[in-house]
């Protein structure tokens, strides 16, 4: 972490419970050459992977629906979110992670995941990078009902929606998850369905 425009002065850990929250004091060299002292908080929850799983024959996408407490605390009345399949990398590489998550969450065994890109989720406060994938499936790849792992306190409903329905749900506000919108828009721009 070397950069001639940044001098880290101190890092103070504020929380190290589920994830890590640090308060960083640093000097930042502006484009005029003046050094400014700044303090910011940075939340490190690790990196993740997300995937749009779709069936081009049926023109459907497979999404998940689950309770998300942060959204409930910020005006989502029931806390339920419709999302693409996703998970934290933990010790896995992005591809291994997403293959495992698809099997656990939506019940498909995939071997054809294509990596698209990686993006910072909320770069002003969160360190997380999400690796984005797509994968086409058909009925022969279904191996279980999905639903997540009880050991991870997951209770996931699997939704199979037409691509048109999913796009409309962005406009109606039924889909409000950024990674899901990004992948659905990618599918639309690239005529996947």
Brief summary of the model shown:
The chain is α+β, with helices and mostly antiparallel strands. It contains four helices and ten strands. It has helices at 69-73, 94-106, 163-172, 178-189; strands spanning 6-16, 20-29, 35-44, 48-55, 60-67, 80-83, 85-88, 114-120, 129-136, 157-162.
Topology readout:
Elements: E1 6-16, E2 20-29, E3 35-44, E4 48-55, E5 60-67, H1 69-73, E6 80-83, E7 85-88, H2 94-106, E8 114-120, E9 129-136, E10 157-162, H3 163-172, H4 178-189
Parallel strand pairs: 4-9
Antiparallel strand pairs: 1-2, 2-3, 4-5, 4-7, 5-6, 5-10, 8-9
Helix/strand-derived category reads alpha+beta
**Cα-based radius of gyration, to the nearest Å:** 19 Å
**Helix amount:** 10-25%
Q: Determine the CATH superfamily of the largest domain.
A: Nucleoside Triphosphate Pyrophosphohydrolase
Identify low-pLDDT runs.
none
Question: What is the top-level CATH class of the largest domain?
Answer: Alpha Beta
Instruction: Count all strands and give the number.
Output: 10
Individual helix count: 4
Strand content: 35-45%
Average per-residue pLDDT, rounded, comes to 93
CATH architectural arrangement of the largest domain: Alpha-Beta Complex
Number of domains: 2
Order of helices and strands: EEEEEHEEHEEEHH
Major sheet attributes? 7 strands, mixed
First-residue to last-residue Cα separation: 42 Å
